[in-house]
Design goal:
This protein is mostly beta strands. It has one domain: Beta Barrel (Porin). Helices cover about 10% and strands about 70% of the residues. It has 1 helix and 12 strands, in the order αββββββββββββ. It has an 8-stranded antiparallel barrel with strand order 1-3-4-5-6-8-9-12. Strands 10-11 form a two-stranded antiparallel sheet. The longest helix is centred in the first third of the chain and has 21 residues. The protein is elongated and about 75 Å long.
Length: about 220
């Protein structure tokens, strides 16, 4: 895996060097904003997070640019399960909420198409590196004899993949020469958690990530 990442990184750097020589303009900037992420598992719902980082914009001509980015991105997932029942006229409930948080370094490489000067249609690959994951679990009930609890725990790195390859697509709009807003969707093609099989029987499906990014950026 490390060799593959090094080969990809070397190829990308070479491409940038060649394209920079051909570029009409070259600029740098910073960006940050809101993440809304979830997993492809049962009962998943969107979890808010954030992203922050920088980018380089290599404009090749009036209609085409390449924008590599380097960002810290907090993502994750939220699961909520609630059971209610009535026994002898009394109403009882049990509710479990589990929030998973992952800390990631992501490297999107976006190809930007500009049908008009201020509007950019973006698409490209994203390389993600998972620095660590944790979970927060909360259990509440009014059933006599059952205790409510709340706890935090780190997730063992052996239980998920540290590298993720994904695909991103979105839109960016230049409000002014220096200020821009954007929205982007990313899907993890390689799984966060691998499929578990015994023979030809699938015990658990592979888990992939979804993430919506809403950004505000400044170009220097």
């Amino acid at each position: 895996m490390k060799k593959m990442v090094l080969v990809i990184a070397a190829s990308v750097l070479t491409m940038f060097a060649v394209q920079s020589l051909k570029a009409q303009s070259f600029s740098f900037g910073v960006k940050g904003g809101l993440n809304l992420s979830m997993y492809t598992s049962d009962n998943s719902s969107l979890k808010p997070g954030f992203h922050i980082g920088g980018f380089a914009n290599i404009q090749l001509n009036q209609y085409l640019a390449i924008q590599p980015e380097l960002m810290y991105s907090m993502m994750g997932n939220r699961i909520n399960e609630r059971e209610e029942m009535e026994i002898l006229g009394n109403e009882y409930y049990a509710e479990l909420t589990q929030t998973t948080t992952s800390h990631n370094i992501v490297v999107p490489i976006m190809v930007q198409i500009m049908p008009i000067p201020a509007l950019k249609i973006e698409v490209g690959p994203q390389f993600g590196f998972n620095l660590g994951m944790s979970s927060h679990t909360k259990f509440e009930t009014n059933v006599i004899g059952q205790n409510n609890y709340e706890r935090d725990s780190d997730i063992d790195k052996d239980s998920y993949n540290l590298f993720e390859f994904g695909i991103s697509a979105g839109l960016s709009y230049d409000i002014t020469k220096n200020i821009m807003v954007g929205a982007r969707y990313n899907y993890g093609i390689t799984p966060l958690i691998d499929e578990v099989k015994v023979g030809n029987t699938v015990l658990t499906e592979a888990v992939h990530t979804h993430n919506i990014m809403i950004s505000l950026g400044y170009r220097f």
